Each structure stands twice: as C-alpha cells, then as structure tokens.
Amino acid sequence: MQTNTINQEKKNKERTKKNKLGKKRKEQFQLILTYIILTAWVVVVLIPVIFVILTAFKTDQEISLINFRWLPKSFTNIEAFRQAMQMGNWSRYFANSLFVTTIVVGGSLLFNSIGGFAFARLKFKGRDILFVMILTGLMISPQSVIIPQYMIMRMVPLVGGNNILGQGGTGLLDTYWSLIVPFMAGSFGVFLCKQFYSTFPRSLDDAAKIDGCGPIKTYVYIYVPLSKTILATLTIFKTVATWNDFFYPLIFTTSEKMKTVQLGLQMFKGSAATHYNWLMAATLISVIPTIIVYIFAQKYFVQGVVSSGMKN
Q1: What's the whole-model pTM score?
Q2: Cα distance between residue 279 and residue 277, in whole Å
Q3: Which residues share a beta bridge with 269?
Q4: Could you report the per-residue pLDDT of 188-239, keeping only the tens digit for each?
Q5: Mind telling me which residue stretches traverse the membrane in this protein (predicted)?
Q6: Strand, helix or coil at 274?
Q7: Comparing C-alpha atoms, which of 257, 86, 251 is closest to residue 173?
Q8: Which ranges in 67-137 belong to alpha helices (H)?
C-alpha cells in the first residue's frame, strides 16, 4: 500500500514537471513569435523612414544611378536641403501650418474635453442618443463629406464677397477659417475624453456639489487639472493629423499665401522630372514639429490611451 502511494506521488511529480515544462516551452514559443512579428512590423515601418533620410543626403547624380545604392557617398552633403528651402516661400508655409495647427489643437482640447465631460458626468435628456449620433462620425470617411463642407464654407453670408444669402463670393474659402472651423471638434476626441472621464469616481462630483460647485466649476477646477494624460494624447493625435493634412488645404485653399507645408511639398513633383533628394530633404524638415510635440507629450501618451479604455 505504501509502495503504491510512493509510486503515485512520483507519477504526480513527473506529470507536474512535464506540465510546467510544456507551459514554459509554450510561453517561450509565444514570446519568440511575438518578437518575430514585432520585428517584422518595425522593419516595415522603418524602411520608408530610412529611405527618406538616406535619399535626402544624395546628389542628383546618385539619384539617377541605374544601380540603386542605399547609402549616399557623404552624410555631410546638405545641398538638397539648401535647394529645397530655396524653392517656394517656406517661411510662409510653416507659419500657415503652425498657426492652423495651434488653433485647431487648442480648440479641440477645449471643445472635445467639454463634450467628453458632459457625456460622461452630466445627465440630460437624449444624452445617449446624441452620443451615438456623434459616434457615427467615426464611421464616415472625411472624403465623403468634403462636398457639403465645401458648400457650407462657400455660402457663409456676408464674408468673402457674399451677400446676406451667401451668394456672389467665395465665403470662407481660401482663408484660415476654412482650415480651422471644420476641425475644432471631432467624434474621436469626444469619445476619447468621454471614456477617460467615465473612469473617475462619482465621489468627485458629490464633493464638488457639497462645496457649491456647478458643472462649469467642477469641470474647470477638478477635471481639467486631472486631464493631463488624455489632453496630451489628444494633442499628439490632433497635431499629427492637422499638420500632415494635405486633402483639405488642397480643396479649401487656392492662393500661394494660404499654402501649408504639405501643399509646399507638392511643388517638387515636376512634369518632366522629380528631384527626389530635394523632396526627401523637405519632408525631413517638415516632420520636425510633430516630433517635437511627441517628445514633450509622449510621457502621458500611452497612459492616456490605456486609461481611456478603462472603466470603474
């Protein structure tokens, strides 16, 4: 009897050991597979970036070589950068993009956070239906509503030569307003802020009411100071989207003085030939502002994305 018990214990130990070994091998396999997938993804993402950087330091002769070479002869050759900045009024392009991006981001932080706070913390009739209607904006392509937006911008009364009926002129087209007004708020920003504010305990609202704070004071003095993570996240998303926007400035603006950085990059595409080294040099310079914003805001970026998907 005792011998059988000992044998059974040995079998149980061996079985447990095999299970642990099998589990460990499975975890190692999953880890290796994860690393392979992530490495492949990083390579796919980095190859275009590396190509842009290397091409920016090449000469026209290197670009036109039949046998493609990845590396330029010299990384001190900045002729492409000099030539790129001499084409067009780049100080104006950067000023336009910087002004539009700053106003759009500032307005988005204000309106999206207010909207998110209202949907998450306030109770009013039709709140859920209205929120669902706003979320439908996430499922509609921006390109599909460009014509209605264009018509609205063109038919604004008493501006741009229009009469009181919105006819006879260009309205807000080819102005900063046409690049700012349609993007001051958005479905994604409201959704992100709403999810974030939904994680806050109700005790905050109760304490604010006891102290005599209404909804506005509660938002300003309690929720805004606690919103660094989500506002930093929204800042990154909105800055990148606005700064890199090519489609809307192309449709809404026509004059040289209203060109943004992305429209400025278009002029490197010639009918006969394209100076790819100049184009890549200008592209490198154009992404500097978004990189700077990310460096300052990335501390809160991941935390903001994660917290917006959590719920108490």
Answers
A1: 0.82
A2: 5
A3: 274
A4: 999 999 999 998 988 888 888 988 888 999 999 999 998 988 998 899 999 9
A5: 32-57, 93-117, 129-152, 175-193, 276-297
A6: strand
A7: 251
A8: 79-86, 90-121, 127-135
